[in-house]
């Protein structure tokens, strides 16, 4: 009797589960499955093919007639096609001419703005203000979504630690926590509450994973990192993006453990999809599936297609190997049709969620496009965001802000001072130099009447001549102060822009040395996309401002800071070395067995160089202000907690200077003794606070178990009892210290 009862119970359970399952099935999933049932194999493969518009963002491949392909149902999405008119024209080809009228997705690299260009991501991260980043990305989403584009290949979440790598400019810097925070708010800003909103667009976490670790900072080159480094440093920002329900993930060009990411089943299918439960679309990088052949892991396009689809890469961007081979591979039983169906389902699901089947032209609102793009509100926001992203690196004798009552003449020098193109940097969406204001023009707008302004280019970006230099030195000699706007061109950063030197280009450095001989005070305004070796400049130049590529309103933002309309508060999200010879150099390094401490650094047998010390020029989290802040000692509400408990760490910060300002208060923690070597510190939290001159503010952080976890020898996340040190301060070098114990 018991057996029968058990059997009955199981039947009831199954039916409830089955019934329950049907009753709860997402209505979109049903629409997707119904549509897939109608599709031919060729139409399914078409959904996995992404074609580019005329403006390529990678090596140009074989030219195809994309309209014909779209009408034949052989394309699922496009990139680099934007603007309501263009998108409507191309979407019409799919809706009016293809058999099943499946709408297309349109993607674009809206990396730091669409038409209104914001500071480059490395600058956005320098704000250390998630709400500033959210604001920039939200405006970008509103502009692109009014202009036909519903998919951005942003945020780039690569941890960047080698300044030779050009894509540092697109990153949020070297730290997993800071990058995770900025990545999360970017996804939230782009994707909004839900995809049925007209200004919600799909975000993309890229480039999954480890691309920033290319050896020697050389673009697309070998990546060789340990499993521990992968999971402790490079994976966290992608996990944060997946936990924020990012719509798509782009595997990197590079390899992990010898396996190119476009064929990396373990990390794409097993980890991303199965372990992390990522439900979205995976889109290859440009031609990356076909480049499996160059990697030496695929014999030909068909082999590359098999490896890509098996790894779990849904969309082949541009390459064509899916389009040219997958149908035959399925027919030859070399690829199960179920794999294709799953990829197609994920793509169609996003199209349904975006509402494209109801209205394929939802994002083509020419009226909204006109009023949204480059609106005065967006420009004003761009100026505010740029001000928050500019880092004051040096300010001897408070030379800044400029006291114009004592200054009768100003020399502005450098071709970057008048450049309207470089200031918006690489990956500038559809931003245009026609819309930007140069540093020189911005200074002209604000300089007091009667002050003489002498402008001389002094040098091109990478070459100069005697007459240029002489004219600049002459102008400088006749002026009370020199504002030198120097650095890198936009093309010297971004993709395919690694540099073997990280100094200001020689031609400009020579100019700067001649200017310094005049003995006039110099303010160096840097425009660049990577940490630079500024050792000489730090010794000889009294004021240095790191503006990165500050965007459409960058010129005005720089002038606001130079002339004191805004007090700088940004901090470096990436270490500036004293020399390339110190690289890799990140703040959260291990201790090693023979550390060069203050006690041991003079000894022979310690970890150091013969010709330079170990310290960076400017540490992670560093940035100055026109005011000054003092920190009280740290107060811990407990000195001992059990595993699972939390404690509060507080400081009182006083603005001891003469002007109101903002301070980025940073919380770092160190595990003093563990079963594996732990970093000397890890950023765990931060807060940006405004404090009026003379005022004090109490800042408290809650330290929880999440802050104390790490991977043990077996790569299991655990907390071990022991002593932990807490550092709260203004950067990773200058802080107050306390300690607490964790007990079983
Ligand atoms: C490029 C970049 C990637 C970008 C894609 C589309 O090669 O690596 O970041 O999203 O192609 O432009």
In short:
By secondary structure, the protein is of the alpha/beta class.
Describe the protein's architecture and organization:
The protein has 744 residues and is of the alpha/beta class. The chain is built from 23 helices and 27 strands. The strands form seven sheets. It has a six-stranded mixed beta sheet with strand order 11-16-15-14-12-13, sandwiched between helices. The chain has a five-stranded parallel beta sheet with strand order 4-3-2-1-10. A five-stranded mixed beta sheet has the order 19-27-26-21-22. A hairpin with a 5-residue loop joins strand 24 and strand 25. Helix 3 runs antiparallel to helix 14. The longest helix is centred in the N-terminal third of the chain and has 23 residues, at 2-24. The structure holds alpha-D-glucopyranose. Residues 57-58, 79, 109, 153, 206, 285-286, 495 line the site of alpha-D-glucopyranose. Alpha-D-glucopyranose binds at residues 57-58, 79, 109, 153, 206, 285-286, 495.
Give the C-level CATH assignment of the largest domain: Alpha Beta
Shape: globular
Q: Total strand count, please?
A: 27
Which sequence of strands runs across the widest sheet?
A: 11-16-15-14-12-13
Please give the alpha-carbon distance between the first and last residues: 50 Å
Count of DSSP helices? Answer: 23
Tell me the quaternary state.
single chain
Report the CATH superfamily of the largest domain.
Answer: Glycoside hydrolase, family 3, N-terminal domain
Taking pLDDT < 50 over at least 5 consecutive residues as the criterion, the unreliable ranges are: 7-22
Radius of gyration: 28 Å
CATH architecture of the largest domain: Alpha-Beta Barrel
Helix content bin: 25-40%
């Amino acid at each position: 009797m018991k057996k029968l009862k058990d059997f009955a119970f199981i039947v009831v359970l199954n039916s409830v589960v089955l019934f329950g399952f049907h009753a709860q099935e997402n209505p979109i999933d049903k629409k997707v499955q119904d549509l897939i049932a109608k599709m031919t194999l060729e139409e399914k493969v078409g959904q996995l093919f992404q074609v580019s518009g005329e403006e390529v963002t990678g090596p140009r491949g074989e030219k195809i007639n994309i309209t014909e392909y779209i009408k034949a149902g052989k394309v699922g999405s496009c990139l680099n096609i934007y603007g309501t008119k263009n998108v409507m024209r191309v979407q019409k080809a799919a809706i009016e001419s293809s058999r099943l009228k499946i709408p297309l997705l349109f993607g674009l690299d809206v990396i730091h703005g669409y038409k209104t260009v914001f500071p480059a991501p490395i600058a956005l991260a320098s704000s250390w203000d998630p709400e500033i980043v959210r604001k920039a990305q939200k405006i970008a989403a509103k502009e692109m979504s009014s202009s036909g584009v519903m998919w951005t290949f942003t945020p780039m979440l690569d941890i960047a630690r080698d300044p030779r790598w050009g894509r540092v400019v697109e990153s949020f810097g070297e730290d997993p926590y800071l990058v995770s925070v900025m990545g999360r708010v970017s996804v939230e800003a782009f994707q909004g509450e839900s995809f049925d909103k007209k200004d919600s667009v799909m975000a993309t976490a890229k480039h999954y994973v480890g691309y920033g670790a290319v050896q020697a900072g050389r673009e697309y080159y070998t990546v060789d990192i340990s499993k521990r480094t992968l999971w402790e440093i490079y994976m966290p920002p992608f996990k944060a993006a997946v936990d924020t329900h990012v719509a798509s993930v782009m595997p990197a060009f590079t390899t992990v453990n010898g396996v190119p990411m476009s064929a990396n089943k373990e990390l794409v299918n097993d980890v991303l999809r199965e372990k992390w439960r990522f439900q979205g679309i995976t889109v290859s990088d440009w031609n990356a599936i076909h480049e499996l052949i160059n990697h030496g892991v695929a014999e030909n396009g068909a082999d590359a297609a098999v490896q890509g689809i098996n790894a779990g890469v849904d969309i082949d961007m541009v390459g064509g190997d899916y389009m040219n081979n997958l149908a035959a591979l399925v027919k030859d039983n070399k690829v199960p049709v179920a794999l294709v169906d799953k990829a197609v389902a994920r793509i169609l699901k996003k199209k349904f969620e975006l509402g494209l089947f109801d209205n394929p032209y939802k994002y083509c609102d020419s009226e909204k496009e006109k009023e949204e793009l480059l609106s005065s509100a967006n420009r004003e926001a761009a100026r505010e965001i740029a001000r928050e992203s500019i880092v004051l690196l040096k300010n001897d004798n408070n030379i800044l802000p400029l006291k114009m009552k004592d200054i009768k003449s100003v020399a502005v020098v450098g071709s970057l001072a008048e450049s309207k193109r470089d200031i918006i940097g690489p990956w500038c969406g559809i931003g245009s130099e026609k819309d930007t204001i140069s540093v020189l023009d911005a200074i002209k707008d604000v300089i007091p009447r009667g002050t003489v302004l002498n402008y001389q280019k002094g040098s091109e970006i990478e070459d100069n001549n005697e007459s240029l230099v002489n004219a600049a030195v002459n102008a400088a000699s006749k002026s009370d102060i020199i504002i030198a706007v120097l650095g890198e061109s936009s093309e010297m950063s971004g993709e395919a822009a690694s540099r073997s030197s990280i100094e200001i280009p020689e031609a400009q450095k020579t100019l700067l040395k001649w200017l310094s001989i005049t003995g006039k005070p110099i303010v160096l305004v840097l425009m660049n996309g990577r940490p630079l070796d500024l050792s000489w400049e730090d010794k000889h130049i009294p004021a240095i401002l790191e503006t990165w590529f500050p965007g459409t309103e960058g010129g005005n933002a720089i002038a606001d800071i130079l002339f004191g309309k805004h007090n700088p508060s940004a901090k470096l999200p990436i270490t500036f070395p004293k020399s390339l010879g110190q690289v890799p150099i990140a703040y959260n390094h291990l201790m090693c067995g023979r550390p060069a401490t203050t006690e041991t650094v003079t000894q022979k047998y310690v970890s150091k160089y013969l010709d330079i010390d170990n310290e960076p020029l400017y540490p992670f989290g560093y940035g100055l202000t026109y005011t000054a802040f003092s920190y009280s000692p740290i107060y811990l509400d407990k000195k001992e907690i059990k595993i699972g408990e939390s404690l509060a760490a507080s400081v009182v910060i006083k603005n001891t200077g003469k002007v109101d300002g903002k301070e980025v208060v940073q919380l770092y923690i160190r595990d003093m003794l563990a079963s594996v070597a732990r970093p000397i510190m890890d950023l765990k939290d931060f807060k940006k606070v405004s404090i009026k001159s003379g005022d004090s503010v109490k800042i408290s952080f809650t330290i929880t178990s999440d802050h104390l976890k790490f991977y043990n020898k077996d790569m299991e996340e655990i907390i071990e009892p022991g002593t932990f040190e807490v550092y709260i301060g203004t950067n990773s070098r200058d802080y107050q210290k306390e300690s607490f114990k964790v007990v079983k």
